[in-house]
Design brief:
mainly alpha, 4-stranded antiparallel sheet, 3-stranded mixed sheet, 9 strands, 54% helix, 6% strand, globular, membrane, transmembrane helix, transmembrane
Length: 669
Amino acid sequence: MSDYAFLASGFPPSATEHEITAYLRRSLCHLQLTDYGGSQWQPEIVGVSVGYDFARHAELIQRLVDEHLIDVAFTLEQRNRTDSDYSDSDGSSASDSESFYVSRSFASQRAAAAESSDGCQDSDDVLQVLQVLENSGTVIVICRWPCDFAEALEHVQQQLDLDENLWEGSRITASPIPCEPTSINWANFAVGLFQSQWQQRLGIRKWLTSCSTRQQRLLLANAMIVGAFLSMLAFYTFLYQHVYASIGSPDKLLVYVVTLSCALGNVLLNQVVWFASQQAGFRLKSSCDSFVLIWYTIVILTNMCFNFLVICLSAGERPENEFATLEYEQQLADRLVAFLRGSLLTYAVWPLYYPLKWVSGILQLLYLHLFRDRLALTDDRCKWKAEHAMEPPEWYMQYDYAGLTVLKTTSFMCLFLFGDGVQKLFTFDILWVLCTYFLNKYIYLALSKETYYTNRMLDTTALQSSSMALGVLAACVCHWGHRANPHRSEYVISVVLLSCLYLWAFDAILRSAQDRRSQSERVWYDSLPYEEIQRLYPFNWWNVNPAHMMRLLHLSPLSSHQSLPAHQRVVWQHGKSYLQPDLVLDFINTESRDNDEGEMEMEPPEPPEPPFPFPAPPTVTVTHPHTEPRPQLGSGRDGHAQSTWPAARSVPTGPTQHHEGALQPARTI
């Protein structure tokens, strides 16, 4: 869904959702865009999802969301029981739909959330907190058609920069969103308006007055990592002086002490990196993951290079005899492999986090069963806690990416030496990759697909970090070429130049692919409007926003809730997609979406009512993509291109009440 949205920043805290929507529609009403297929279309604004400043009340908002989902889960269970008992009764679905939210009042949910909040005493206090939430200044603008390519955002920014389109004299900035709705940290949208308590104690503003709060947090996070890393290197230096320098041939026990110390140091540094990433206040999860991946890779590789250097320097002078040189390299390779087997222990231990997490969930279930009466838990809350304890955690792709980069780099480092230990190291790497592949595909993906996701920014960063391993391999080729014939220096120079040229071109292509997508990367749904796309997924740009959903449910009239689609009235969370009551497709079984053969034709569902009225509701021609050929890219946006799909039927996507003369030409999809 990131194809249909972009970020807009620069709004004042008092700007409301409807005011921003009206401003954007007025500013972009005369803008005409041309996509990759050559079709011209207008960036119709569906609505905006406001990023509220609720960092101080994040715990309260989360408790409200939990109470809301507990109520939805309990009511859904009761409705399923009723459907099983009265499946042959006419009108049962309508009665269930009308009573879907009547199990508990919103005041009861607020009162339950206030019990665990320090700043709220009752339901009225919670309602007051929701009313005073301010706009962080950044919103997510949702368009009816894909607008993620760079040219479209450039034209949008030019239109917003016009003097007549300024917001109270302030300039609004448009930027792309490189991630899906599920990858946004809504609590960090207001970074720049507040400081944490420990930052106030350190007095960061006094030392970095020219930087924004977000930049101050990022600089402080980097300084924290560098300081911890330098302290660890000083400890390693002291350790090696008492092991390798003082003893000519260290025994196995001392080698294991050093390698295990390095492994523990890697674990501690990784925790520091994770803590710093959480304190930096990233709005997008992709930025946070890329930050962790870069620092994680730098820390591990620098640690490896440092230890490699110390081990090689402590091995003594290289003998002049060729046979003695081979024996010398054999011993050095064995020592390096002995070190790596201990220092790479973190990669072998990391996948065990998930089985241990499962064991922890079992223990929590046992605790809830034994102490349920003492904790005074109701049936629905006890079921909710039990389900939450057994949910699979997020699979942190940044650690897998960093592990692959580090393993390839360290393995290529061992190619500089001759010995049987190098073969053992490569065997260890292959076994690690096979185990990781097995865990990813056959265990974790079988449990949860909703917490197993990556993004374009993280993938690009991972590919860029892989260039370090390629650089080490190229240096290894130069090394052995120079040893084979030391007088052929032009060979080494040519390899270095070609390697640098290749890495430069590789990096340039990656950066270009990250910013803008080519025609070959467009997907089949690019010709569908947003109202149809949001019916295919359990999440959208509104139901993933906790502050927006709580304000909608608790502050707006009940009649406005019922006018929205059902999946815009239920908050989405990881592992809770089954609570979305009107999904068209099963989010777990997604293989059938691209299967065009052997499927029976299904009638497309009626489109939902948009959250805001459109000035000119069009008519869209839709057919199911499983049985019919897909259209060419860009067809149908300008109202002139003809569809290649036979037997298509027209479905209105806007409100059912049309004004005279406002109906646009039919868009064929």
